[in-house]
Amino acid sequence: MKATVFTPPETKLVIEEVTLDKLGPQDVRVTVEASGVCRSDLSVLRATAEAAGSAGAPPMILGHEGAGVVTAVGTDVRRVKAGDRVIASFVPECGECWYCVRGESNHCETYGGSGAGHVTRSDGSRPLGMSGLGTFAEEMIVHEHAVVPVRTDLPSEQLALIGCGVTTGVGAALWTAQVKPGATVAVFGCGGVGQFVMQGARIAGAARVFAVDPVPMKREHARQAGATDLVDPSSADPVEQIREATGGRGVDYAFEVIGNPNVIMQAYDATRPRGTTVVVGMAAADATITLPAVPLFLQEKRLIGSFYGSAQIRRNFADLVALAESGQLDIGSAVSRRIRLDEVNDAFRAMEAGEVIRSVIC
Ligand SMILES: [Zn+2]
Ligand SMILES: [Zn+2]
């Protein structure tokens, strides 16, 4: 089968023929029908290539947002069977660890970052699979805890996005922040995940949603996602613009969906007293923020993180599928381009150029 292989420090992915392993007892073999190209793929590529330097590092199959059909399962697998449609999850849910039994499975103790890719290249080397997955391939072998079966007629390109962008974004609004009806919300960063934060806020019944992004295409797209007010941070201070529109107070909930310390502080400053700032974006590994301590105390602000939308995948993937089926959640409009596996390098370029919300390999 074909896979795109990333061989650091080389940053261009190369499509090649690889051989899949035999299935282990808890493994599931999946034909990947669709895979979104997410900013985290590019972040991992960049960081890995840089850390590898000229010495190189193990090859890797990127991609962590995918959906497909199960073709075979290991001898001990009970939760899925051949023929099932599945959504892959880059955080497994083992169902038994300390976090899973507390309904906090997005912190499942079996989550181990990038692991075995379960394939061998023609030169005998063994690529890693990003986040235990590696969806930039025709097929993949993953642990049964990393797939969730779904019964739906939604197209695979939409199911794929539930694997990362939809869950991260909608979940941040619904399950992490638990936005209330009538609330005011600001979303800083209107890429794929930001668009889904706005949809989550709309589904929760937010009365007013500010979309903050310097890219006109993303602000315009935000209207479809539920934004009521478009804020261009390059034209004037976005914090001032939001305060001015909210009686000088700021919003009930501000989401930062970039991972930039300065923008996290803007989101914090745009949050009203007693409001909640939610950090959804993944910052650089060494990034820090410095908070003025007195307003934190005096204004009773809450500053919280949101990882994978605080989602419990076995339950919440089905919830998101149901919301999409009912028309309340629009996943399809986030699919800007459908591409082939060998066009993934160009998808990274298009992402950086701000040309797309999501490119999907399908
Ligand atoms: Zn992602
Ligand atoms: Zn667990």
Notes on the structure:
The protein is α/β, with parallel strands linked by helices. It folds into 2 domains: 2-149 and 331-361, Medium-chain alcohol dehydrogenases, catalytic domain (Quinone Oxidoreductase, Chain A, domain 1); 169-307, NAD(P)-binding Rossmann-like Domain (Rossmann fold), CATH 3.40.50.720. Helices cover 28% and strands 25% of the residues. The chain has helices at 39-52, 156-162, 165-177, 192-204, 216-225, 238-245, 261-269, 293-298, 313-325, 344-352, and strands at 2-5, 14-17, 19-20, 27-37, 60-61, 66-73, 85-88, 115-116, 119-120, 128-129, 139-143, 147-149, 184-188, 208-212, 229-231, 251-256, 271-279, 302-305, 335-339, 358-361. The strands form 5 sheets. Strands 4, 6, 7, 11, 12, 19 and 20 form a 7-stranded mixed β-sheet that branches. The longest helix has 14 residues, at 39-52. The protein is globular, with a radius of gyration of 20 Å. The relative contact order is 0.15. The chain binds zinc ion (ZN) (2 copies). Residues 93-94, 97, 99-100, 105, 108-110 line the site of one zinc ion.
